């Protein structure tokens, strides 16, 4: 019997128990099962400065978190919990986009205040603790997902690229041709864009 047919006959709580016990393919099954829920929610919302795909990706991150964090001892069903996390993730993205949109206005300072702050050494804008924690969580989830789809070679090339190396420097370091590195970076971009 095909695994997917087996999973169709199981309830979500059992699937999550088995996922946590090591059946990692169940995570993929749950993500596919609830993808329509994410798409439906993404259609309801608007991301300023972004597109529908950005919002959809945020929703998928929320769904992935739901699969990892669901607690069956709570009264909510997995579907309810997943919808909550998907919605929160999307709203966080919308709020983040709105913060970016208004950043110039929100962080503007009068010239006299700027001069006073420079003299006192108080120059700078600080994010709220909630924003910092959400950003770290989102970055960690995204990093794990990226690591999951990249080959060891692609991870190594990406790390060098993120350190600021250009194609030639990476090629020299890895003893490969610049064209090979360019192809690898193109593969990375394609894979990451589908997360």
From TrEMBL:
Entries under Gene3D superfamilies matching the protein: 1.20.120.1810, Winged helix-like DNA-binding domain superfamily/Winged helix DNA-binding domain (1.10.10.10)
UniProt entry keywords in alphabetical sequence: DNA-binding, Sigma factor, Transcription, Transcription regulation
InterPro entries, alphabetized: RNA_pol_sigma-70_dom (IPR014284), RNA_pol_sigma-H_factor (IPR016371), RNA_pol_sigma70 (IPR000943), RNA_pol_sigma70_r2 (IPR007627), RNA_pol_sigma70_r4_t2 (IPR013249), RNA_pol_sigma_r2 (IPR013325), Sig_transdc_resp-reg_C-effctor (IPR016032), WH-like_DNA-bd_sf (IPR036388)
Record has Transcription regulation as a keyword: yes
Family per record: Belongs to the sigma-70 factor family.
NCBIfam families reported in the protein's UniProt record: sigma70-ECF (TIGR02937)
This protein's name: RNA polymerase sigma factor SigS
């Amino acid at each position: 019997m095909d695994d997917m047919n087996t999973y169709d006959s199981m309830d979500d709580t059992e699937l999550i128990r088995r996922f946590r016990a090591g059946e990692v393919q169940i995570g993929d099954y749950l993500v596919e099962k609830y993808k329509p829920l994410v798409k439906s929610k993404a259609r309801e919302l608007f991301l300023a400065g972004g597109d529908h795909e950005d919002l959809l990706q945020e929703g998928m991150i929320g769904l992935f978190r739901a699969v990892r964090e669901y607690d069956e001892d709570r009264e909510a069903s997995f579907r309810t919990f997943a919808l909550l996390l998907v919605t929160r993730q999307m709203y966080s993205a919308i709020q983040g986009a709105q913060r970016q949109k208004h950043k110039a206005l929100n962080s503007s300072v009068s010239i006299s205040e700027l001069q006073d702050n420079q003299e006192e050494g108080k120059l700078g804008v600080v994010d709220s603790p909630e924003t910092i924690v959400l950003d770290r969580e989102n970055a960690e989830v995204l990093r794990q997902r990226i690591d999951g789809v990249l080959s060891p070679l692609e991870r190594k090339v990406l790390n060098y690229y993120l350190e600021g190396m250009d194609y030639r420097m990476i090629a020299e370091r890895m003893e490969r041709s610049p064209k090979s590195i360019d192809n690898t970076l193109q593969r990375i971009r394609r894979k990451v864009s589908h997360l």
